[in-house]
Structures are given as C-alpha cells and as structure tokens.
Amino acid sequence: MAEVIVALDLPSGSDALRLLDRLPDVRWVKVGSILMTREGPDLVRVLTERGLRVFLDLKWHDIPNTVAEAVTAARELEVSMATVHALGGAAMMEAAAAAAGGRLGLVGVTVLTSHDPASYARAVGRGEVELADEVARLSAEAVRSGLAGVVCSPQEVALVRRRIGAEAWIVVPGIRNRSDPRHDQARASAPADAVTAGATHLVVGRPILHASEPGDAFRSFVEEAQCVRS
What is residue 202's three-state secondary structure? Predict the structure, then answer.
C-alpha cells in the first residue's frame, strides 16, 4: 500500500499544528518552502517529536557541495525524506546521496506537475518536448545517481516504474478525488490510479486542507490507497 503524505502548505506553523490535531492518524507530513521559510527547523523538530515522518520538499538545485551540505543538515534534523531537482545533474545527485548516508530518503524531482508540454518546452528552451520521455529520462538518471526514488506526476508513474525497477520510491503529488478541482495541477489523478500504476507515496494537500472535515478527507484517501493492494 502507498503512504499518504499530508502537504502542510499552510501560512504558519500554528496553522499546521492545529490541522494535525484534527488528523490523529497521520504518519507522514510534507514541509515545503512556505513553512520552512517562515518557521525554520524548529517546526521540523516539533513534528518529529510528535512521531511524524517529515518529507522536506525544498527541491535543492545547486552546486554539488552546497546540496550535500543541505542534505547533511536535513539528516541531522531527522527528516525522513527530502527532494533534490534531477535537473541539477548526476554529480549533484551523487553528492546528495553520499551525504544522505542511507539515513534519509532522497527523491529526485523530475517535471513539476504544474507543467504541460508547452510550458516545459519554454522553460528548457526547446521547441518541442514529450513530457513522459523527459520524466523517464530524469528518473533513470536519479536512480543511477543513488537516490532512493523520484517525484513524478500520476500520468508518468507506470512508465517510471518500468524504468527504475520495483524497489525505488515513486512520490506522486497532484492527487485529487475525481470530483476535486485541479487548481494549478495540470497533471493530476485519483489515488487509486496512481497506486495501481506503482506509486509508493501520495502527496495530498488542498483536498484535505480545505475540507470541512479534514480527518474524514484524509481517511478517504488512505482507504482508497489501501484497497488497491489489499
């Protein structure tokens, strides 16, 4: 079964902790750039002291030494998973994996779920891009470089699973119920589809954060993820 990670994309640490008080069954949480910039490592420590596994999603993309030092800092915070950007290249990812030392699961971000082919082509300066091929290429490079897995959209999970084997993690954002609005997630899907294709971790934000009953919303995602492999 896939793990459901609640994305704490909220304005403040106090907002995040109030939400978590309503989600007693949560095991994994994602801390991204908003909360990390506002609250810093102290919030991560509070979360780990609550027994939560923290996914630190900062998408490091820098020279190898700088990224390795950032990974070391995350490892010392007892973070369970963190992201680097696969476009940083093999040398950067290899340095990051070495710094993780097997104590922190590093996953490589491939193509952001907000991209469609036209926007990604503009970003990388190409006339034409097949997103699935680009995701598969970057995924293979990330795993060859020693990362624990990758981040990709639901639409590429099956292809990525074939390219990187059975053991690597596939972390999937853009998870929505079929009736939920997609907002800025251009490539989204329901949890069952992602898990069936081979996802190991499902990142869910707004469908839980904006629900009138966040606990019920969280449980519905967990139940769907569990049913696929039961």
Answer: strand
Q: Could you give the dihedral angle defined by the CA atoms of residues 35, 36, 38 and 44, in that order, rounded to the nearest 10 degrees?
A: 90
Please give the backbone phi and psi of residue 57, each rounded to the nearest 5 degrees, phi first: -105, 80
Which are the catalytic amino acids? 59
Region label for 59, one of left (φ > 0), alpha (ψ between -120 and 50) or beta (otherwise):
left
Residue segments in the chain with a per-residue pLDDT below the cut of 70: 178-188, 228-230
DSSP-derived letter for residue 107 is: E
The Cβ of residue 14 has, within 10 Å, a number of other Cβ atoms equal to 11
DSSP E strands in 93-224: the ranges are 105-109, 149-151, 169-172, 201-204
Q: pLDDT tens for residues 52-64?
A: 999 999 999 999 9
Total tally of structural domains belonging to the chain: 1
CATH value at residue 88: 3.20.20.70
